[in-house]
Every structure is written in C-alpha cells, then in structure tokens.
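=== RUN LOG ===
request id: a7f3
mode: sequence -> structure
chains: 1
length: 348
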Amino acid sequence: MLRSTPAQAGGGRPRASLVRRARESIAKGSKSFAIASLLFDRDTRERAHLLYAWCRRCDDIADGQDHGGDLKLDEASAKDRVEAIRILTHRALDGQPTADIAFDALGLVAAETNLTREMCDDVIEGFMLDAEGWRPRTEGDLMRYCYHVAGAVGVMMARVMGVPADETETMDRACDLGLAFQLNNIARDIWEDDAAGRCYIPEEWLVEMDIPPGQHMKPQYREQLVTLARRMTDMAAKHDAAARIGAMRLRFRQRWAILAAANIYGEIGREVAARRGAAWDSRVYTTLPVKLGLVGAALKESISGTYPPLKMPKWTRGELMMMARMAGPIPDAAMEPLPDEDIRRLEE
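=== RESULT ===
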C-alpha cells in the first residue's frame, strides 16, 4: 500500500539550506533589494529572501530561462511554463517537496507567515498575462498588471514583516509600494520590453499621442514617449508617497529597509524623467554611492517621520483586486444539487 508524503514546510529541506540558497539568489538577481534587505532584523531578512527566491524563480521559468534549477521547461510553451509554476507553488503551499529550492523556500516562508494560495495566485496571474501575449488597452489594464506582478508581492512582503491580515490600511500601502516599483521599472525598460516583443504602455495612451501600434521606439515619436514615461513616473511617485504612510507603521528596522527600497527604486523613476529622450540609450541604474546616500536619507526619514501626500493615488488595492477577480478565470461550478432540487426529487 502506497503512503502519501507527509506535509513538511519547505518540502523537508533544512531551513538553513533554503535560507542560504535564497540569499545567493537575491545577491545575484537584485543588488538594490539586497542592500535594502540588510537593514531588516534577521528573521525578516531571511523570510524576505525566501520570498524573493520564489519570485525570481517564477520570473525565470516564465521567461524560459530556468537558471540553475532542476526543472527543464525550455521546450514548453509559455502557458505551460506558467501552469508548471502554479502546480509547483500549490504543491509547496501544501507542504509537499517540489524538487526545486525556490518553491520549497516559498513553502517554508508561507508556513511561517501565513501566506495564502490566493496571494500567490494573484502573482502567478501576472505571468499568465505575459504568456498570453496580453497588452494593456487602458490605464486600468496597466494598473491591474502592476497589481499582479508587484502590488500583490508588496502585500506578501507585508505579511512577511508580520503585518496582520486584517490591517487593511497597511496592506493597501504595501500594495502602493509595489505599484510604484513596477511603474518605474516599466518606464525604465520600455526599450528592452519592445526588443522582447512586449509593450506595457496602454493603447489609449499611444492613440492619444498619435503613435501607431508597435512604433513607439521610432525616433520621430521620442518626445511623445518622454511624455508617456513621465506620466508613469508621476503615477509611481504618488503611489510611493502613499506607501510611506504605511511604512511609518512598521517597526524601526523594517521601516528603514522599506524606505531605503522606496528611495532606491524611486531614484530610477526620477532618473528616467531627468534623462528625457536619452532615458533608453542605456539602462538606468543607481550606483553604490548613490544607493548608500539614499539609505542614509531613509534613516533620517525613519526617525523624523514622513508627510502624508496631499492627494492619494487614483488606483486602490481594493479596486485593482476587484478588477483582477472579474478578469480572472471563472471557477468551476459546483456539481452538488441545490437544496430545493433535493426536495423536488423526493416529491416526485
């Protein structure tokens, strides 16, 4: 008789091994977040690294890169790769081994911080949008995508930092920070996305600027593109300002780390806006001395406090979650008969 594998957080791997591999992942994949994460207390830092390892691995699999892992999905279609992400994620959340370090890392941090399947599925839906060749038609479409790939991760990070699930205001602000990060990233990566056959600029924005589909990187449209990129970075700045309200509710070291990350990613958006038409001639990044200066500025703000924005962002977590649910897959219909159907059968 076959016995089922007992559920174990992390798929039964030693915690120290998962943490070490997760730390290696963030050191390789994101120097900005790696620096900010050093400001966390040890428990929060390790859990943030575990979550990052899953996010990074999902991104690699979705793009068909699969760096340094056991899975071999190179020949699979984009949709099949995302479905593999979903299956492995659900398996990890159930405490089952996945044969992949990053997914086992998710299983461990989920067990320690009560991350839910719904939270993970929200992130995975962002990968599915890319796999389907999706393009945003409206600003709302753009923001729904940003919610999936970054806002939802911000919510998960809040749970990693110990924010209770019912502290909705703080969760909303964590989502704002993720939205700010993604908007700045999109503005920075317009050229790279175009080279990969992707465009996250809403079609309605392009029409407004009289830019034909697929032509936004042509030199004759550079000034219009500068205007649209500035629109994105301005939106990012509003979400960033709102996020800082939530950061002030965190413990000191968490607050410092989050504000440092906000400063570093915000600098990307400010640099894109400052370079104007030259923003995509070379990749925008922040140097180590600049990063250290932004960390210092975050320390000062952590102590002195932050000013609330004069106006909150247009797009809210609740609204974006509703849009995500409405656009998501329709759940399977229940196969059990309704109570009154049972009564009618008895009467017959």
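=== NOTES ===
Confidence is low (pLDDT under 50) at residues 66-73, 341-348.
The radius of gyration is 21 Å.
=== END ===
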